[in-house]
Amino acid sequence: MAVGFAQWGNDLYTGRRSYNIVGRKRLWFTISFSLVAICAILLVKPGLNPGIEFRGGSEFVISGVQTSDQKLAADTVASFAPEEIPRITTVGSSSLRIQTTTLTNAQVEKAGAALAVAYNVPVTQVTSNFVGPSWGQDVSSKAIRGLIVFLVLVTLVLTIYFRNWRMAVAALLALFHDLIITVGIYAAVGWEVTPATVIGFLTILGYSIYDTVVVFDKVRENTVGVRDQSRFTYAEKANLAVNQTLVRSINTSVVALLPVSGILFIGAFVLGAGTLRDIALALFVGMAIGAFSSIFLATPFAVLLREREPELHEHTAKVLANRAKAGSGEVVGAADVGRATAQLRPGSHQGNAAQPRRRK
Question: What does the alpha-carbon distance between residue 49 and residue 51 come to, in Å, rounded to a whole number?
Fold first, then answer.
């Protein structure tokens, strides 16, 4: 199996085997647009569930409980604050967390004593914590500010490095694609958004841009001097680059997802570590969807933008005209190139030629 996978990767790199990923960009765009649309709807309804760090309020943690009956905690809170609808979650195997709106000091003391009696534990095993809403607003504003700075720097660096702003736009599209889908799935699951969740969201941006830059770097390497030859189009050269980095992208994604999945499924569900669960879900979804976008979205979209450049547009038309005439044995003329250019206009179904057959 290992030999077969290695041979498959070698065939992809040398071009003996090739998948027309760039040529099927409409399929990948449709899939991506559908996922983004669904996740956008999920962000509206049911929407994100902000944690107490962003809402503000009072929090109680009861440790060493013999029962995880949440109704008991709800009835206890209702006995001294009837208007309260507490949020109750199980933490691990022997702890409960109860979140309410902001309570007075007297209510906090009364609630702690009542919860200790209800669950038959010492008062010292009931801890309380107050979180002001201003703290959550400060975290949110700093996260947004960091995101804006990150996007600006990424745009400048990619534009300078690849010497083309279209590559930066394609990378940013993949970033937003990954972020929206990750946040949408988080909203669908219904877990609380905590500072750890926000850290996870920001982390996947770095992972996504890293994977995309690796693919783009190979595209740049393959397309240097592409207009100096008339055998392959820019899209075909870029498609070869995607195939050459396909195995590397798969291996990197699998290796990165293994420890994250361990944190998510063992640390969160088995050990009951809530903080690990928050960040692990964001990382797991973001890395998985980032691997998809770097292969099937970023490069095809970059090719779509670059083929609109007059020089590359004309070169593609020339290659297609030469290829068509080579099959019939006729001489290529200016009129032939003009007809090929017309076929490449937006809306034409012949904008992407099939990968040319290689001689054995």
Answer: 6
